[in-house]
Amino acid sequence: QLQLVESGGGLVQPGGSLRLSCAASGFTLDYYAIGWFRQVPGKEREGVSCISRLGGSINYVDSVKGRFTISRDSAKNLVYLQMNSLKPEDTAVYYCASRRYLCSDYVSEYDYWGQGTQVTVSS
Predict the structure, then answer these.
(1) CB atoms within 10 A of CB 33
(2) By the number of CB atoms within 10 A of the CB, which of 6, 27, 54, 93 ranks highest?
(3) In whole angstroms, what is the distance from residue 65 CA to residue 37 CA?
(4) How many CA atoms lie within 13 A of 72 on its CB side?
(5) Rounded to whole angstroms, how far apart are CA atoms 98 and 17?
(6) Per residue in 24-45, pLDDT tens?
(7) Residue 62 — pLDDT band, cuts 50, 70, 90?
């Protein structure tokens, strides 16, 4: 059974850092594009960052450029989202999702999703 599980969320003060992890069971993450998304109540799910199959391309939404970094750990079959200089507006449930090969901006084009991890940025 293919499954994604996020971890690493929590409560952090503005300006702080968190590292989210996306772990997979049943498949190898290197062969899939992995996207990080976030959602707050009453709003649509937003794409934050994505890394394509084998890391060929990486993209970020403008609001996190220079603060967030997506990366792979192939040996551990993990994808990370390092989040620095966090702001209150980064507060959301963060999800990772997978699709074949290339990144997409469209939520509907991702095949598998994790259950989400809450990130709260507050003093």
Answers:
(1) 24
(2) 6
(3) 14
(4) 21
(5) 24
(6) 988 899 899 999 999 999 999 9
(7) very high
pLDDT of residue 18 exceeding 80: yes
Q: Which of 64, 67, 78 is nearest to 24 (CA)?
A: 78
Between strands 10-12 and 117-121, the pairing is parallel
pLDDT recorded at residue 54: 76
Task: Tell which residue, 66, 58, 59, has the closest CA to residue 85.
Answer: 66
Distance CA 102, CA 35 (A): 10
| Positive or negative: CA dihedral 52, 25, 113, 84 | negative
Q: Is 92 exposed, middle or buried (0-12, 13-18, 19+ CB in 10 A)?
A: buried
With tokens 């997978």, the residue in question is: 98
The amino acid at residue 67 is: R
Tens digits of per-residue pLDDT, 64-121? 999 999 999 999 999 999 999 999 999 999 999 999 989 998 999 999 999 999 999 9
- Which residue, 6, 4, 10, is CA-closest to 91? 10
